[in-house]
Amino acid sequence: MPSPVLADLAAARLHVVTGKGGVGKTTVAASLALALASTGKRVLVIEVEGRQGLSQTFDVAPLGVEEVRLVAHHSGGELWGLSIDAKAALLEYLQLFYKLGRAGSALEKVGAIDFATTIAPGVRDVLLTGKIYEAAGRPRGGRGSKQRGLHYDALVVDAPPTGRAVRFLNVNAGLADVAKVGPIRSQADSITAMLRDTRTLVHMVTLLEEMPVQESLDGLRDLAAAGLHLGAIVVNQIREPHLSPAHLTALAGSDDDLDETLRTELTSAGLRPTGPMVKGLVSEGRDHALRLDLQDDMAAEIAAAGRPVIELPALTDGVEDGGIAVLADELLDQGVR
Amino acid sequence: MTARKDTEHPRLEVDALLADPGVGIIVCCGSGGVGKTTTAAALGIRAAEAGRKVVVLTIDPARRLAQALGLTELDNTPRPVAGVDLAAGGSLDAMMLDMKRTFDEVVETHATPDKAEQILANPFYQAVSSSFAGTQEYMAMEKLGQLRSQAVADGRWDLIVVDTPPSRSALDFLDAPKRLGSFLDGRFVRLLMAPAKAGGRAYLKVFSVGVDLAQRTVSRVLGGQLLMDVQTFVAALDTMFGGFRERADVTYALLKEDTTAFVVVASPDRDALREAAFFVDRLGAERMPLAGVVVNRLQALGASALSASRAEDGVEQLIEAGEGESLTAGLLGLHADLASTAARQHGVVSRFAANHPDVPMTSVAAAATDVHDLDGLREVGRLLSG
């Protein structure tokens, strides 16, 4: 059953995916983009940290500054990919707004481009989000086209991890201290308007483990405080529950009882029960019970955050071999449009 | 549970590493989310309880781990960790890096009082010292240098364990300080300072056309105020350039000494191990001493002799016998899942091992619950030493 709260998602155009390092942000961003593309939309998925996580996920050549088509879906939807590079974005920006052919290369020569893209605080983030702004606002038919409508129906950003995401998305605050007026400031203002629009949603990816959940909840608070709109909490890598409540009760019983039960049942299973096998299965079961308890606590904390929750299964074979498509289908089943 | 017992692969002997009086610094690095901080804290406790006088420098610990170490406030000062067994004559201090304060201290140390005041009040400095993408790495290095000097001076510590910042890439820890150093010493900074030093510099004349154009452009794009702030900042910093670069160079050199040991931490998945491989190769290229790789949170199996496919067959038989709801069916299904995860992890770890035959490795089995107290850290330390 699609959750009614996911209606917000259907209205969104810009999806920003963040979360603690190692929780699967890139996988979730890729799956979300693929899910949206399979509903007939033209979608752009963007990475901003130059990790080439998307090209590895989709098993294509490294992405560059040119948008490339990753998937053409039979619904008519298309998925395009882009890896934004701050330096290329700055040169493109200077060319676009200042027509700086020669000054661009002069700037490069004296190290000003390096300065602006790696050292100057906030400037790098304005450039990266500025490129997203350009792609999001690009009219159908390309720059300067008179056609109605927009080139992309939806954009998905594989954003930096939670700790840096707030600064990344709060470009105005980053610049406020250093640039009070001037062109880069007004550029930052337009970007901020886009990021704070209700059609831009920040999704938080987490695992049902203490540290990621804690960091996610802190992150959600910081994002909301920065004036950003929160989307879903995506709980990733959920393990299939193998044990029922009755099983868990049985596991809490005495070792001797369990030994007897397991030996009988393992024989029916066609296996020859040994001491280590029985002990091993019981200890795996008890560890699993502890993990389930912890997961319940974590799930309750997530539910208390009051955001729509999307659950994605752990893929036993990893994300290779069509894992992204499995997760995209899962997202569609849960009402993502 | 060790992944490597079945092969001839060299093992990272953690206890030998911690006991080696010739090792004074252990740097824990790796990509985000692999358990660097936990590993650093676990190594610190184990070393302290074995008799070393240890200080652990953490960068951005999770709240409960910080609490376990008694790090309730970010005050940039190492403090004793309560609850550590000091019977062997060791000690354990821990601290959390305050990057802004560390940067301020560098300025205060290297500039005259009024110059320092001028720098600290500069808006551009304030932004750089609290939000520049590489400041955390640079200041972690700086703090490491400071702790080392203090250790040499007063003998309070004989082992420093450093956690590295949660960077985009593990390599940032090595590269960011140089990047800041080369910026401070670079041509662009000279260019920004040109108005203050106009004339007399022949090399500037060569570039004067480009410089002029570049300067006008920078001013147009960034706005005049920002440019002026940067110029004032750079002019004020000029007097301490030497100090800055020298310190960065000294710390970088420290990382190459035999008394330093890098421990690369990874989780048993493709991406984290790829990042670990980059880092291992880079350490080799820089001739930096790698102690080995820790593969964290490896899936442990209770019934390791039972394969996933035999467990699945067992489930099938139980279902056919009408016992699909039995406890054993549940446990066998769970085991099949765990065993195939373990097999996949074993595959990626073995590939890494095969590509790095000389790199010692050890692994830590995943705990059923998260680690957030000293006992949990002791358990990780015990697993690390195998």
UniProtKB/TrEMBL annotation, chain A:
Report which superkingdom the organism of origin falls in. Bacteria
The transmembrane segments are none
Gene3D superfamilies, per database record: P-loop containing nucleotide triphosphate hydrolases
Where is each ArsA/GET3 Anion-transporting ATPase-like domain found?
A: 15-176
Select a single GO molecular function from the record's annotations and give it: ATP binding
Q: This chain belongs to which protein, by name?
A: ATPase
Automatic annotation (TrEMBL), chain B:
InterPro entries (alphabetical): ArsA/GET3_ATPase-like, ATPase_ArsA/GET3, P-loop_NTPase
Pfam families membership? ArsA_ATPase (PF02374)
ArsA/GET3 Anion-transporting ATPase-like domain spans which residues? 25-298
Could you state a single Gene Ontology molecular function term? ATP binding
- Superkingdom is Bacteria
Enumerate the Gene3D superfamilies for this protein.
Answer: P-loop containing nucleotide triphosphate hydrolases
Identify the PANTHER family for this entry: ANION TRANSPORTER ATPASE-RELATED, ARSENICAL PUMP-DRIVING ATPASE ARSENITE-TRANSLOCATING ATPASE
Q: What protein does this entry describe?
A: ATPase
Q: Name the source organism.
A: Knoellia aerolata DSM 18566
